[in-house]
Amino acid sequence: MSQTLPPPENIPLSDILPDRPILLMGAGPVPIPHAVAQANGVVINHLGSAMDAVVARVKEMARYVFQTKSEHVLGISGPASAGMEMAITSVLWPGRKVLILKNGTFSNRFAEMAEAIGAEVDILEHDQHRPFTLEEVKQALSENAYDVVTMAQGETSCGIENIHLEEITKYLKKENILSIVDAVCTLSCLPFYMDEWGIDIAITGGQKGLSSIPGVSLIAFSEHAWNTIENRKTKIPQWVLNPLKATRFWHHKEYHYTAPVPGILALHEALRLITIETLEKRYQRHYKSSKAIQLGLEAMGLELYIPEEYRLKTVIAISLPETIDSYKLRQYMIDQHRVDISGAFGLPIVRIGQMGDQCLEVNSLRTLYAFGSACSHLGLKVKISEGMVALENYLKTSRIRRF
Ligand SMILES: *Cc1c(COP(=O)(O)O)cnc(C)c1O
Hints:
With 403 residues, the protein is of the alpha/beta class. The chain has 14 helices and 13 strands. The strands form four sheets. The chain has a seven-stranded mixed sheet, with helices on both faces. It has a two-stranded parallel sheet with strand order 1-12. It has a two-stranded antiparallel ribbon with strand order 6-7. A hairpin with a 4-residue loop joins strand 6 (154-155) and strand 7. Bound molecules: pyridoxal-5'-phosphate.
């Protein structure tokens, strides 16, 4: 007789989770609207007429958010990184050459993925935190021939916006070089026009700008990118993340793998709320909310890590003096104010997110106050009231949604 191992101790989830929700104001995941949370609690058959209708709507709304007319839009069961991996492994293979515009951890992830499948990888990087110019990209392209160039619209790890994105991708289109753009922390928050800007592959996750749950992502391919994939001579090394196989579910109502049903329903609701708000108003809301927080932080006497000209609006990096322990600061905010912000990957910063439902007045007021109070608790001289006044004054002149 085999002996079964004893079951582990029973610990209910309620013993692990905080007894009151904590406001997620970091670099993602972000708070989700009620309609999204409710949809996430529903399971239906992943094949059948109801799901077919949902999938059709998700694709249609995703096209609006990406601003593309391309047919080749797919959902992915997986994090945004799975979308990045689908992009890289479908248009690169041994012998193909890619240029990576590296601004930090996330834009460099493309390089790790491309190296792993044996593509030739060149990385363009700076010693300072700033975006690439078209001139720098042109220079790199004049020195070597590339099949693909990758970049992130917003580099979440340090808070840089690639303000020359449009110029760069338009140029790449003219040169017939494929562009892959990570719009994970920016889509639906900052202007993004896939077709007009000539972007070949665009990727986003659920848990950032879209204000949906983590685990279901979106990807869109241009005709040029799709032709490249259909005509490649070698097999795509992926099975789950193979875009041609994924069309079975996303375009032909057939089985590929069991679709993440609740996540797709949640994404449907998140996208629907964006279509109601409209992209223009959503861009404005993000701009105003982020600007208000930035002004508030500066009025408190804090320094922002990235110059205003190319400061990412969706993830704001705040410089911390060496004497301040970022972990303690964030823990104090959680314990005293139930507000959670992000640390950093080895940089002397903390980061406040401004994506989706993070950009509501109530959340901005609470977060800025919590941040000021934590700084003060740790001995940093900050002018909390001045900061709050600056934030409120800006919000007053440019109303954004309160709830
Ligand atoms: C969060 C993020 C990613 C990774 O998303 P995951 O869902 O964690 O895989 C990639 N790129 C950017 C710009 C991000 O902000």
